[in-house]
Amino acid sequence: MKLLTCPMNGSRPLSEFIFGGEYRDAPDQKTCSDSEWAAYVHNRSGAPGDKKEWWYHSPSGTWFIAERNTLSDKVSRTYLLSANTNSTQEQAK
Amino acid sequence: MPLRLLKYAIKKEHPASRFFKSHDAPKKSYDVVIIGGGGHGLAAAYYLAKDHGITNVAVLEKGYIGGGNTGRNTTIVRSNYLTPEGVNFYDASVKIYEGLSEELDLNLFYSTRGHFTLAHTESAMRTMRWRAEVNKHVGVESRVVGPDEIAKACPQLDLSCSGQAPILGALFHAPGSVARHDGVAWGYARGADRLGAEIHQNTEVLSIDVKNGKVCGVKTNKGYIETKQVLCAVAGFTPRITEMVDLETPIVIHPLQACVTEPMKPWLDTILVSGSLHVYVSQSSRGELVMGSSLDPYEVHSTRSTLDFVEGLTSHMLDMFPFLANVKVVRQWAGMADMTPDFAPIMGKTPIEGFYLDAGWGTWGFKATPISGKTMAQTIANDSAPDLIHSFRLSRFEDYELTGEKGAASVGH
Amino acid sequence: MSLRTTKQNGEWLDRTKKINFTFEGEAFTAFEGDTISSALWAAGQKVLGRSFKYHRARGVLSLANHDVNILVTDGIDTNMRADVVLVKDGMVLNAVNTIGGVKKDKNSYIDSISPLLPVGFYYKAFHTPRRFFPFWEKVIRKAAGLGIVNFDYPRILKRKLHTHCDVLVIGAGPTGLTAACVAAEAGLEVTIVDENQQAGGSLGYDRSGNVAMASQLTDLLAKVAGYSNITMITGAYAAGYYPDHLIPIVAANGITKVRAKTVIVASGAFEQPPVFRYNDLPGVMLGSAAQRLIYRYGVKPFNNGVVVTANDYGYRVALDLLAAGTKVVAVVDLRAEASPMAAEVTKRGVKVYPGHCVYEALASSDKSGVRGAIICAYDEQKNVAITAKKITLECDGIAMSAGWAPAGALLYQAGTAMQFDYAVQQFVPSRIPDGIFAAGKVNGIFELEQRINDAKRAANEALRYLGLSAPEVVTERHVGASPSHAYPMVPHDKGKNFVDFDEDIQIKDFVNAAKEGFDNIELMKRFTTVGMGPSQGKHSNMNAIRILAKIRNLPVEKIGTTTSRPFFHPTPIGHLGGRGFHSHRLTSLHQWHAEHGAVFTDIGAWKRAAYYPTVGQTKEDAIQTEAMAVRQTAGIIDGSSFGKIEVHGPDAAEFLERFFTGVYATQKVGSCRYVMLLDESGVIVDDGIASRLADDLFYLSVGTSNAAAVYREMQRSQQMWQLDLGLVNVTGAFGAINIAGPAAREILATLTDLDLSYESFPISSVRESIVAGVEARLIRVAFVSDVGYELHIPMVQVPQVWQALLDAGKKHGIRPFGSDTQRLLRLEMGHAMPGVDTDGLTNPFEIGAEWALKMSKSYFIGQRSLQILAKKPLRKRLVAFALAENFKGEMPMDCNLVLEGREILGRVTSIGYSKFIDRCIGLAFVTPAKTAIGAQFQIRTDNGSSVTATVVKTPFLKN
């Protein structure tokens, strides 16, 4: 089993984690068109590459971000979203 | 012993010719370029030639034919879907499959064994009834059966599943079958080749030329090909191709794993599926148990194997068949599945003129091979998708008209 | 005639312990430590099994766990590998897949009709006309498979262990043992694993007849034993490589999952058979198999042997045979150039034939063994036999040594790039992933001294990888004659020169496959099935690659290899499945429910009481009885499995505003509001109740099966929104009891001082008080009845309150009711349940839940999609319906379809007979045209009859 590093709990086997999908910034729902919103809701950047993803450490209830290459399945970095102030502020708006 | 085996035996030289010709390099241009030499791509080439007389066609395969999900799936063919659109579509596929060995003159070992989808919970029973009702309505033989009938078809099954997940009933689908997956690819390849299509193995598409919203050619590792029509039939690699034409789709790639045991004398005559236990199993004509489970839980573009998968699957196999404890798993493998949000394929035209999609096949692509080939050939020939695949169009997502197959998957209670 | 030798130095037998067993009805004796094959071979039994396809007689081939033709059954287990399974006293063994026994297998006729079964024959026959295929399929299925599975085989639960080490060494031959010592010397925790019963690898049997070799092994093992930080595991194999250096080690008693910091692969190489006519006869075996027989089991492989070789190893085998007392008739060497070792065997009276091949082995009259070998000159350039001058050598056995294939499966699985090294005619690692090292034969290093050196190199590299300082050791690549022959194959007009013994594949099968276009290694594998048998190509893949390279006139490296996948050896389902866990959550009342005859149902992870039938009562009756109690007096249900979540902090209301569809900012403390959760696409995920206990504290109760997922999404949203609040999942901490019915208030009043008057405690309000001496949150809900109280109390105190309620309600006739009854009760109330009356695509408009949406809010999850959906015509809508009064026909069920002619208008989502109102009522999706009160539609029942339903108002109770 692969290992993944939870920012709060360290390296743990993958079976303790739940994949939460790609981290995506939503378009401004007040200004975006219907089709832009539909694309946001349904479409995904499915091509392989470096992705920012949501992961959840189930036993401790920790959501965090993993930067992972979906081709090699290598994780380069994991961190709490709140540690990334820019995106936190954007989301809070 | 069939006569033709005698003919083989008498001849000193092995009489067979190549299933498909080998070509040095693609020509400068084709009417249609099909990306992907799996079952779907080859079937499309075959039906383009056979049904529409379009033979100036190249099938480009970056590896070897049938080497993707065609050669990696667990070969189950069925049509017991939830929506009328789904049932009709897969039923049309089953009908072609039933005569395909004869049509392609290749024994695909299409073997109708009956298919049980086991229900261990009341909510699963509800879904089974829902599917049975729709199937019946469309004219497909599916019905809800009780434990007795399951026991009759498979007396070895522990109906209590080791006391952990007692079986309440099942959806029995009489037409459920298995087939030789490689044979399907080879048969279509031979058929397409004989009708004039060219199959180019080891030929990888590097980019697709689009001008003014129209396809005009593809660049390959064996040179540039002019064409106005491109079919993308590359399950597991679809996002890599759609990225070449800047086409957004909902498709994400998850591996789907499978494994196979040592051969044993056939005892399992039916195909069994348990959604709750995440197991599907049938016994091949070689005597191996061919087993699969649910999709891997996260996106990876790789066919690596995991221990988790085989541990989980075998644990549940033991719940169903406790006596298999010392039967051995020989090999595990994986394929890459195109997953869509509504568990239905994406087929037909796209906003790019001349670029057609045959994608989003998730875990159900093999069973659709003949009908997808046929309907995609129709779509390309007429530049218009037939009604049979209307509900699978890419634009359904923008229209918020997802197919109802998602319905069953989310019934939780 | 016994072939047992005198005791060998280092043999694996305990000759003081005799074992009696039978094979195919005949009695045999053996020593403890014998495998089934070695015991039978020692006793002169030659035909040990039959091949899969042609049912040809087969004997010992490798004695290294790929003698796949020698599978036996002991009546309990099957497909047991006789070459490695230890024989036990009292075993009653039979070969698998024969008709009438291994010696006179009636299926052996198939061998004589083999021309009828060319490669891929099953693709080319039996399918026309279509109607005959089922007949042929039956014939084929009968012939398929190996052993017969024992349906009574016990489900033996195998344990799983998890261990960690610094260095995992795979293979305990001289290379692995040396590497382990180097790592151990540096203070690292080392685990070394070997599939053989004893460590030592080739050092234990490759002796060139030299007894001194035995002591070299003894010394090395003593050294290993001196390190307390080396864990040696023998009789267990590394089954596969998984990411982050996870390697399952499979032993008889279970799997150990080893997580290693580094892995040294010293797994050696598989000896490969040269290919010539009848190379499969019993008595024709690999040189290393002959050596294993001699030194491990004290068995002389044969009396008069011929060694066919294409490397220097064959000469060593010849010397070992001589040492065992076998007369070696000749060494036949494919290579024209004389081996430097030729002189040594010549000196011992063995004739050497350089530049010769075995053209064919000669079968004894009953085809049970070898009576001779026809040899002739061999053209190494063209790879053909020169048959002008054939010599017949009499012999009763042939030892074959033509080369090796690396046991590189785990290296491949780890992602190692391999390249073909012509110096050793073998694939060797060229680029290995971080933390993995290869040494010894698998790395293309064959000379013993060099292997030891290579082990030191690899171990030191591993040390440096782990951050320790260690000297650089350089291994010299192989010089001199290659240990493997480039093309050890002898074509023969009549074939039967086997490449793959599992599947009976001959050279011509490859030629024919290529002719048909299957000239790519993967296609060839699939068409011929080479390497697809239980040994997974261990002795056949390399030769298949060589043959294809020759057919296509390409260098071997251009052909490539097929993909290696787990498992290294076939691995039992019981081992992999282990003990198997099914986790269930039980409420603190579970015992009570069980004692009171509850029938349980699985809802999400929970076991819930569905209903409580009294003796002789049907499910339907039980449900009606319980429902009537609620309607007429009172009932109580254990709702402890409901999801329960606290949202506390100054931004709690703001959080709910964003997360759910309704309005919470203005919700008064002490009141409850409905919550509905959507996904981004506007589909209903779940619903529940938000009770405001304080300005900054909401207590949420949501459905059972979605609770974990809902809480998880709340946590994710909070990560994004970073509001000033905390989330606590109190599902397990709080239990819940719902008491409902006209007498509920009166019963509850006896247990609490709280003012329960409808004025001060109206519907949709929450209070905190003491009930039956326990602190409780009381929520006034109208889910199953107009009068109902949900009591949320600490889980451990639920039984106490439950009992108090039962006692207090006894005189009213209070009854417990289960979740199935609850379904009916809420249906009578007209409530739709997410997941039952909605599916994975249902949006709020489709269930008429516009009232639950505050579209004018600035944001909630799914809002934007609802704005889009609102513009689209509605395609279906949930309606309440009733069947005719006194309906007596076939009762429709959930998921029966609503039809109009051929058109599907919708489906029933819930239906039930309500005794209280004496009507069949339900909810159904229908097209918008059918939604008006009084509209009628047709439901098709299971038996095909059509039932008319009429749209009615809810709640049904007030109809």
List the helices and strands and how they pair.
The complex is a heterotrimer of chains A (93), B (413) and C (959).
Chain A: E1 3-6, E2 10-13, E3 17-22, H1 34-42, E4 50-57, E5 62-69, E6 74-79, H2 85-92
Chain B: H1 3-10, E1 32-35, H2 39-52, E2 57-60, E3 76-77, H3 84-104, E4 111-112, E5 115-119, H4 122-138, E6 142-145, H5 147-153, E7 169-173, E8 177-178, H6 181-194, E9 198-200, E10 205-211, E11 214-220, E12 223-226, E13 229-232, H7 238-244, E14 252-261, E15 271-274, E16 279-283, E17 289-292, H8 307-320, E18 328-339, E19 346-349, E20 355-359, H9 369-382, H10 405-409
Parallel strand pairs in B: 1-2, 1-13, 2-9, 5-15, 13-20
Antiparallel strand pairs in B: 3-8, 4-8, 5-7, 6-7, 10-11, 11-12, 14-17, 14-18, 15-16, 16-17, 19-20
Chain C: E1 14-23, E2 26-32, H1 36-42, E3 49-50, E4 57-58, E5 71-73, E6 80-81, E7 92-95, H2 109-112, H3 121-124, H4 133-143, E8 159-170, H5 174-185, E9 190-194, H6 212-225, E10 230-234, E11 236-238, E12 246-251, E13 254-265, E14 269-271, E15 284-286, H7 287-297, E16 304-309, H8 313-324, E17 327-333, H9 342-347, E18 351-354, E19 356-363, E20 370-379, E21 384-394, E22 397-401, E23 404-406, H10 409-413, E24 417-421, E25 426-431, E26 436-438, H11 448-465, E27 498-500, E28 505-506, H12 507-515, H13 521-528, H14 541-552, H15 556-559, E29 571-572, H16 573-577, H17 590-595, E30 599-603, E31 606-611, H18 619-632, E32 635-638, E33 643-648, H19 652-659, E34 672-678, E35 684-694, E36 697-702, H20 707-721, E37 726-729, E38 734-740, H21 744-749, E39 766-771, E40 774-780, E41 788-794, H22 798-809, E42 815-816, H23 819-829, H24 863-870, E43 877-883, E44 897-900, E45 903-914, E46 919-926, E47 936-940, E48 946-952
Parallel strand pairs in C: 1-7, 8-9, 8-13, 9-10, 13-26, 15-22, 16-17, 16-22, 17-18, 32-42
Antiparallel strand pairs in C: 1-2, 3-4, 5-6, 5-7, 11-12, 12-13, 14-23, 19-20, 20-21, 24-25, 27-28, 30-31, 32-38, 33-36, 33-37, 34-35, 35-36, 38-41, 39-40, 40-41, 43-46, 43-48, 44-45, 44-47, 45-46, 47-48
Helix pairs in contact in C: 5-6, 5-11, 7-8, 12-14, 18-23
